[in-house]
Design a protein that fits this description.
By secondary structure, the protein is an alpha/beta fold. It contains 13 helices and 14 strands.
Amino acid sequence: MRAAPRVVVLAGGVGGGRFVLGMREALRRRDAAVNTEQLTVVVNTGDDLWLSGVRLQPDVDSVMYALAGVNDVNRGWGRQGESERVASELREWGATWPWFTLGDLDLGAHLARTGWLRDGLTVTEVVARLASRWALGASLLPMTDAEVDTVVEVDTGTGRREMHFQEWWTRYRATLRPLAFRNPGMESAGLPSGVAEAIAAADVVVVAPSNPVVSIGPILAVPGMREAIASSHAAVVGVSPIIGGKVVRGMGDVCLDAIGVATSAAAVAEHYRSRRHGGVLDCWILAEEDAHLASAVESAGIAAVVHPLWMTDVTATAAIAEVALRSAGR
């Protein structure tokens, strides 16, 4: 492997943004001149939605803002120095979800995105335009150019109902029991320009510690994605989003329970499966708190590596990313 290998990260959400920051730092420590050809982030777009007439891409924006250094680390989403005057006015008009806040700076990105989409640009082209505003040190690619917004079927207590993932996640805080997650239109979606090429050219593919069901799940569900990973010469290394039997952030345990997967580092590794057995993983990095599960991971045909996984700052996260790069050699 070169001093600065070519890396593709599959990521979504705030955790994905944090991990990508650490990966960029790890690559820069190997080669200060690392460029966007050496780090590609394939981002989940299952969270996308139309709201108040504009197209939102929460995971794309979370990763982009994190790499640009303009994300609000205190709230965990959106831009620094945000205001909410437009959101307040939209609520007065009854033209938005009252429980879903659009920051004014963030809304500027949504308006630009929507205008370019209506002009006929693909999602890939729009993401590239948005990302070109900052020197991100990485290339961002959506998992697909198709609209495959995540729909959740829930048990309301009096019956079943379908709703957009963002309503279930943000309004109800995942308190309504999910029965199924679906991405309508996924069967006719496909890989956008650049994704298969990046995976084919990669030395390492990393599955970030993002939600396995609603962040990584949609990425792997895009027709052609698993085939691209299976045929790549790159080692595929996953980083556990579970530490000590608990999710690090959000309500990922509720999502895992809905698909019959235990909230366990070993169970998530087995859910992704070994690449030798038709899955996607060659190696799995577990937290020190889960070291006792390493043998179960190895029994599933996946190399296990134990390392501290708390992403407390860029330094700690870069150390995790470096372990992922070194583990690829296994």
